[in-house]
Structures are given as structure tokens and as C-alpha cells.
Amino acid sequence: MKKVVRHYEFSKKEDREKIKVLYIQDKKLQGHLDFSDFTSLKELDCCDNNLTSLELSGCPNLESFSFYNKQPVDFNLSRNIHKKLKYLICDFSKLSEPKRTEYLKWSWENIRDKVNFLLPGLEKLIDTSDLDDWVENYDWNRIGDVEYHKFCGNKAGDRKWVEQEFGSKYANFITIEWFKCLDYKALDSLGDKVFARKSIVLKCLLIRKKKLEDDEFKKVNKRWEEKRNLLAEGCNLLSRGNPVIRVWDIEQQEEVVDKALAGDIELLSRLQDLPYLKEEFNFSKNPQLVLKEIIGLKEELQMEREEVEKALQKAQEWKERQIKELRE
Questions:
Q1: What per-residue confidence (pLDDT) applies to 128?
Q2: What predicted TM-score, i.e. pTM, was given to this entire model?
Q3: What is the secondary structure of 126-153 as a DSSP string?
Q4: Per-residue model confidence as pLDDT tens digits over 311-323
Q5: In the prediction, which pLDDT does 208 show?
Q6: What is the C-alpha to C-alpha distance for residues 290 and 69, in angstroms, rounded to an integer?
Q7: Which of 97, 102, 114, 52 is nearest to 77 (CA)?
Q8: Cis, bond preceding 72 (omega within 30 deg of 0)
């Protein structure tokens, strides 16, 4: 069990260097905090204080940083130094440009591309440009506009639906006010949409071809896809468990993903009806994929013909030798 420190007074530098988790939220801290000596720090939560600036350049192991402050604050994070950072949980509206844009993009990329029990590589098949554009072009003047933020989860205000899908516990918790600004909570809900797309693509790749051709299965699978995408509108409540991994082992998953990324026509043909398939894997937008397969088949056929001709030639030569030996 990891040790959680809930106070900020460390008299010795060697003590500060050992701390990995530091929770100092709502401690009435003011002014500037310097974390230069916290070289082992992985998790930092300093929300709900009156801080003006933070020094984090000495924390190269930082993985999670939570910061909701009562006023604008200055802190520096660097992709070169903080390479392990996965969770940047803060109120981006309190940051000044260009940090607001930079940190927002960084946080979204971490959420969008994280694996979530799904294989690395699936994100290369999926088009997320609709989500990327909304984040990149976010209108900061629309903070507080509930309708505008429904893009993050349009089921947030549907109490009946939330209660039906997740129970009254969540229905009482999630209201129409759930998304009012672009913070980590909203970004994470957008990440649910990416997760749903990954799940659907992976299942399409793994299902047996014969089963995919069954009309009844097509209907069932279509309903499953629709439900997955609908749950992704449910405000951070989409199950993080992989619904596919229970049936197929990791080697099978790796195999189909690698084949699809390599341009396997049969596997990619299963994804052509998905509206979020990346253009380079879409036959209508990238006919070179199919052409490459046709050329490959022709080359294989030509090689087979050449092998047959060689075999026939050898058989003819053997026959002629046998006839010659009999005559002699």
C-alpha cells in the first residue's frame, strides 16, 4: 500500500526526496510552492488553495497532477521533463495563454491515446478528428453554457436514462449541470467516445468471418455497437473493462490489429461501414489499398503458375529420360 502524505512540512531534504504521493488540498496554502526537492514525486494534489505559482521542474517522475485553484496560478510543465505525466487535472480556464492551449492539448492527447485495456495500435485505425477539432477550437466564452457542453456527453441531463442504465445513485449525482466547462472531467468523457470506438473496431476484427456473414448476428452486433456509443454519452460512466478481452487472448488481438494496420483487405473490409475509420484505411478514399491487394494476388498467381510450369517441365524431362532408358 502506497504511503500518502497529507502535510507539507518536511524539514529534511532527504525526506522530501522519498515522497511519492503528496495530497495537500484545501490547506489554506498561499503564494509560491517549490517542489524542486521532490524528485520521486508521482502524484500531487494541491487543489483548493490560494496559490500563485508552483515550481515543478524538479519532478521528472510526476504521473498525476491535480490542481483546481481559487485564482489564476503560474506553473511550468514540460514534455521534455515530465514525460511520465498521464493525468493533468486542472481548470484550464484559470491558465493564461499559451499554457492553456498547450496543457489542454497535452491532457487531451493523454486521455485520447491511453490504452484502457485495449491494444496499442487501435488508435491508428480510428478517426477522432471530430473530437480533436472540438477541443482545439473550444470557445472559452461559452463557459457555463450547458447546451454547448453537451458535446461531451449529451445524456448528462437525461435523469431517466442515467437511472435506467446506471441506477438511482448516479441519477442523483449526475445532473444537467454536469458539464459547464472544458476541464479534465469533460475531456475524460470525450475519451469514453474514443474507448467505445476502439471496442467496436476490435470486436469487428476478432469475430469469425462466417459469423459476420450471418444476418441475425449482424442485427445483434449492430445493436451492441449502438449501445456502446450511447453509453459513451453517459458522463464518465462507460465501463472501463474490455468486453472483448474475455473471449480472445492477447496474442489473437495483437495478430488481427497488426494485420489490419498492415493493410489486410479482408479485415479492413469489416470496418468500411464505420463512420470513424481513418481515411488511409477506407477503400473509397484510399483505393490504393485494394489495388495493392489485387497486385499482390496477381503476383502470387503468377508465381504459382511459374511453379506449375517448372513442375510440368521437370515431369516432362523425367518422362523423356524414362523412355530413353527403356529404349536402350
A1: 94
A2: 0.76
A3: B--HHHHHHHHT--GGGTT-HHHHGGG-
A4: 778 777 777 777 7
A5: 84
A6: 54
A7: 102
A8: no
